[in-house]
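Chapter summary example: a protein plus 4-nitrophenyl beta-D-glucopyranoside.
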Amino acid sequence: MSNSGSSASAFPDSFVWGAATASAQIEGGWDEDGRGPSIWDVFCRREGAVLNGDTTSVACDFYHRWKDDIALMRDMGLQAFRFSISWSRIFPDGTGKINQAGLDFYSQLVDELLANGIRPYATLYHWDLPQALQLKGGWLNREIADWFADYAETVATCLGDRVKDWITFNEPQIFLGFGYSDGTHAPGLTLPHEEMFHTVHNVNLAHGRATKKIRSIVENSQVGIAIATKIGIPADENNPEHVEAARKATIHPEWSEDHNTYLNNAWWPDPMIHGRYPKELEKNLPGFADQFPASDMEEICQPLDFFGYNYYFGVIVEPADNEKGWQALPDQPGEPRTMIGWPVHPSGLYWASRFFYDEYQLPLYIFENGLSSMDWVDTAGEVKDHQRIDFLTRYLTQYHRAHAEGVPLAGYFHWSLMDNFEWAQGYRERFGLIHVDYKTLKRTPKLSSQWYSDVISSNGELLSASRHELK
Ligand code: PNW
C-alpha cells in the first residue's frame, strides 16, 4: 500500500500534532463570571470521592493563565490544541439563559490560539455536566438530547467561524461506566443495566442531534467523537487466529454484571456509524431498543468526518474455545507499568488503528495517549522525564506502522498538555508535557516537551532514529 508522507519514516503530510486537555481538569475559576456548578464540582466535595479531597476549584488556573499557556504551546511548536468547553460556563443552569462571559472566554481563547498558528479542536462534552441538569436526571432524561443540541448550537454559532474541528463526546464508556454504573466518578450512581442503557441511548441521540446542528451552522466543519478503548492485542501477532481473536475482543461487546459492560467500544460508534446497536443488546435486554421511535436511529447515524479514539493500554488475548472466542492472558510478573498502574502496551496503537479502520472506514485521530509518571522538578530546576520519551517513542512507532500499511491517520494528540486534575485520583497523577506546581501554579516544561517539539518539526521522522526493539 502507498505511503503518502514525504519520506518512509514520516507521518502523512496532512498529519496534525497536538496536545489535549479538558475544562474541569485545567480551568479552575469554577464559580467565576457567572459559571454554574458542574457535577464534578459537587462530586469532589463529597467525602471520600476524590483522593485527598482534591477539588476542581483552582486546578491549573487555566481560566486566568491561558495566554501564557498558549505561549508555551507555541514555543513547543504545537500545531493543534484540543480543549473542552464547560457547559455550565455557557449555560449556568444547563438550559435557558446564556452566560455571555462564558462564551467570551472561549472566543478569546480561540482567537489567541489562531493568532499563534494553533488549530483549535473543541470537545463539547468532557464529563462536566451542569449540576442543574443532573437534578433533572442527567443522562437518564431523554430531554437531554435537546438540551445538548441547544448547547451545541449556541457554541457552534459563537465559535464556528473559527473552530472547524468538533468532537461531540469524550469517552462515553468512562463517564457512563464509572459515573452512572460503578459510581467512582461523578455523579456517583450505580444504576442497573436496564437504566444504564437509557443513558447510552440518550448520549447517542444527543450526539446525532448536535452533529446535525454543527453541520448546519459551521462551514467546512469536521465532526466526530473520541471514544475510550478496550483494545485486544494478539499474544502472537504472526498467528492469524490470534489476530482474529484480538479483533473480536476490540469490536464486539462483552456483557458482564458490572460496569465492565460499558468499557466496550461498540455501544456508541455502532449506532453512530453503522446505524444499529450491537446484537449483544437484544440478546441481553430483549426488546430494549424497540421502545424508541424508529427515527431515533436515523438521527443518531449522521455522517462523520473522523473516528477519534483515546488509547492508554490494551488486553493481550489469545483464541479460546468459549462463546466470545478469545481470552485474556494473565498479567506478566514485573511487566512495565506507569504511575497510575496501567501496563505499557505500545502495539495496541497499531492494532486499534487497523481494527477501527477496517470496521468504521473513517480517518483516525488519536485524541489522547500518554502516561502518568513520577515527575518532579529536580535540583537543577528541570523535569527529566525520560520514561515519557521512551513510552511515546514506542507508542508513536506503532502508530506509524499503521500509516505505513495504508491506514489513513489524521493526527495525534498527547494527553496531556500539562499536569492536571485526574478525576477521582485528584492531583496525584502527572500526565503533562508541562509540569505544574499546584502551590505556586508555576509551569515547567518537561524534557519531553522539547523532545515532542522535535518530533513535530520532523513530522515523526525523529522516531526512527531510536527505533529498536520497539514492540
Ligand atoms: C481519559 N481506564 O480517562 C480521559 O479522557 C481524561 O480526561 C483522563 O485524564 C485520561 O484519560 C487519563 O486517565 C480514562 O480506566 C479514564 O482505562 C480511565 C481509563 C481510561 C481513560
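Key point: Confidence is low (pLDDT under 50) at residues 1-5.
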